[in-house]
Amino acid sequence: KAGVTQTPRYLIKTRGQQVTLSCSPISGHRSVSWYQQTPGQGLQFLFEYFSETQRNKGNFPGRFSGRQFSNSRSEMNVSTLELGDSALYLCASSWGSMGVWGEAFFGQGTRLTVV
Amino acid sequence: SQQGEEDPQALSIQEGENATMNCSYKTSINNLQWYRQNSGRGLVHLILIRSNEREKHSGRLRVTLDTSKKSSSLLITASRAADTASYFCATVPDTGANSKLTFGKGITLSVRP
Question: What is the rounded average pLDDT of the residues B42-70?
Answer without folding.
Answer: 96
